[in-house]
Amino acid sequence: MSRIGKKPIEMPKGVKLEIKDGEVVVTGPKGTLKRSLLEGLTVQSDGNVINVQRSSEEKKVMGYHGLMRSLIANMVEGVHNGFERKLEIVGIGYRAETQGNNVVFYLGYSHPITFPLPQGISAQVDKQTSLTIKGIDKELLGEIAAKMRALRKPDAYKNKGVKYAEEVLKKKAGKSGK
Fold it and tell me: How far is it, in rounded angstroms, from Cα 158 to Cα 126?
């Protein structure tokens, strides 16, 4: 039995879960998230506790058990509290600014890079070198943060670029002359 899959999910106040046509819909104060239910799994709600059950002991279904439980738990957390990711921009002249629903990056290229934000994701720039992105969908938020980081990955020799705030960079030694 999956250790993660058998853990119950506690529902906070103000969050509702519905199962319609093989789809899980979670509604809360921050918004609504939908996800299709993976095959071989069922979701049972007992008041404020949700359990994910599997129908068989097939290897494929057993693999989906913990995954579906984690996805539903992230949906519940997202519509209740939301998620945020912090990015830092390091380098002389490197900066970012928001323009409407876009983030404009100046990362040492010959042109600024305009990054459009998808619906449900918001960004806030602090001090031009610190960026906070927020949203209710953890998967989409992580994908957007990774794409922003990929615009100028941190250089191992100069430690310049876009990095996650909690990321620790190890600076490599350059060439050593004799």
Answer: 23
